[in-house]
């Protein structure tokens, strides 16, 4: 077998079924952890309703994404099909604006998933700091977060080096270790009578809540933050090129994960507020599950909870790592990123993208707080969802895509649903999250979000220059190989 040329963009291998895709995406329910204490800060017990509505929003959006993922089975989920739909076929000009839009959507999606690695590395460091006091004497929380990130990122690169199938096996193991105890923590408070219904009904909304413009903008921002967690199970569609049977595997993996997310998000938040009350949650905004475990299981439950949460965080880091690396591979394949990011090893793993993502997140950890990083990341996620939903609408209406086979079809008229939720994301959620950031943590995270997103523009122009140069070089080589005059001149000289 001839060795693959180093400058070629590699191809992902079809090696998983819907159960393995679900296993990898099962890290998504853990995305509630950074926001368990954040959303009740603004909405008290109504946070329970926000999670339920946000997961239902995920069903509305993911129904469109499932159709797109099966219509374009070689595209990697949201970043893949948005790029494919918006590019102009056989474009003759210098720069295709449609391709830029599709590429920006993919970049936004990459930035939405990418910081999950930094956020949960900080949380892992924080829990280790509390679990082992001796570590607190040796290292600061920042140093522990950095060490945790370095160890976890390196370990996941090694595990996933041999392809997505092995990553799914790790997902099965971590899902058993982390999700089962999480479900127990969500259900046990209700079963043991530790949940006080008055904690929910007596504090449904803050006493100073009003339906004025200030609070409506806060509500949009809260839904944008919640969407970052509760709608993220669309990641099951990003492995479209790696499913053995995309037309059946994609919708199965998506909707199975969505159902799990609905019950887990609603029950976990309800259990936390029901046991601790809103004031108790606000007293433990980073790790409210620990006092819940203490109330239900005693002191021993605290140790078990921390170990479970660390395993859970590694699972969601893996989910984000695989999703963001596939997004970079997809962008490189479409010519929207330098081709080096599309390189895969012989097992089909985009290893260059994984190394770059790991290094980028080690830098992000220096931002210090999960809330600041999440706020910046949510800006990218709202842009990615908005553009992807508009891509779905274009794919339904544009003649170039009208006759494509659609193994899974959303219900009739779903493009109207996509338009509504596209407009909710852009501009409403985007305005809301920027406004909320300005109130909560200042403008730093907003600037980080917009700077990272804007960096895509010079990178994209460089990618177009690289592509034109490669095409010109290939054309020159092709013409010289078929030029009799050139051959004759070289033979007579």
Key phrases:
disordered N terminus; mainly alpha; 0% strand; 493 residues; disordered C terminus; APC_superfamily
Overall pLDDT: 85
Number of strands: 0
Intertermini distance: 38 Å
Residue runs with pLDDT of under 50 for 5 or more positions: 1-8, 486-493
What does this protein look like?
The protein has one domain (18-467): Amino acid/polyamine transporter I (Up-down Bundle). It is built from 21 helices and no strands. Helices cover 73% and strands 0% of the residues. Mean pLDDT is 85; it is low at 1-8 and 486-493. It has helices at 18-25, 39-43, 47-71, 77-86, 97-113, 116-131, 133-138, 141-160, 164-191, 197-201, 213-230, 246-283, 289-297, 299-333, 351-364, 370-397, 399-402, 414-440, 444-454, 456-481, 484-492. The relative contact order is 0.19. The chain is mainly alpha-helical.
